[in-house]
């Protein structure tokens, strides 16, 4: 079995709009290899507003796409284009992070990988940001 890494990355922001507090959360998941399973993408990003998905991006559809009627009606092309560039950048970052972490893990653990495969490996990373 090939070595496969999974990253989960959370970015959280609390917003105040018209005296109401809302939550904005972005969830990023990345795999080190395409598993070839339907609906499972090498990289996926989902935006949640108050816990409900409103946009998504994945390797099969590499464009920030609104998923609700209100998002389709109110999100501008400029916002979606900037979001697409941001998601492409994060996808690239996760790819580099996989390589760096794999190499460091091998070096720190002293693994001699004769068969260029590991039997099992799982990694998980989480981060958040809150201005308060």
Automatic annotation (TrEMBL):
Domain of life: Eukaryota
Protein's GO biological process: immune response
Gene Ontology annotations for the cellular component aspect, listed alphabetically: external side of plasma membrane; extracellular space
Record's keyword annotation contains Lipoprotein: no
Alphabetic keyword roster: Glycoprotein
Listed name of the protein: MHC class I-like antigen recognition-like domain-containing protein
A Pfam match: MHC_I
Organism of provenance: Oreochromis aureus
InterPro entries with a match to the protein in the record: MHC_class-I_related, MHC_I-like_Ag-recog, MHC_I-like_Ag-recog_sf, MHC_I/II-like_Ag-recog
Domain MHC class I-like antigen recognition-like stretches: 21-103
Cited PANTHER family: LOC571647 PROTEIN-RELATED, MHC CLASS I-RELATED
């Amino acid at each position: 079995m090939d070595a496969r890494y999974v990253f989960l990355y959370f970015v959280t922001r609390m917003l105040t709009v018209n005296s109401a507090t809302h939550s904005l959360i972005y969830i990023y998941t990345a795999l080190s290899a395409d598993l070839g399973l339907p609906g499972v993408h090498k990289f996926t990003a989902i935006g949640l507003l108050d816990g409900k998905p409103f946009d998504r991006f994945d390797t099969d559809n590499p464009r920030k796409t609104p998923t609700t009627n209100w998002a389709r009606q109110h999100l501008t092309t400029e916002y979606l284009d900037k979001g697409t560039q941001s998601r492409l950048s994060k996808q690239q970052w996760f790819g580099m992070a996989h390589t760096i972490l794999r190499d460091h893990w091998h070096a720190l653990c002293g693994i001699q990988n004769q068969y260029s495969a590991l039997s099992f490996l799982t990694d998980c990373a989480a981060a958040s940001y809150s201005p308060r």
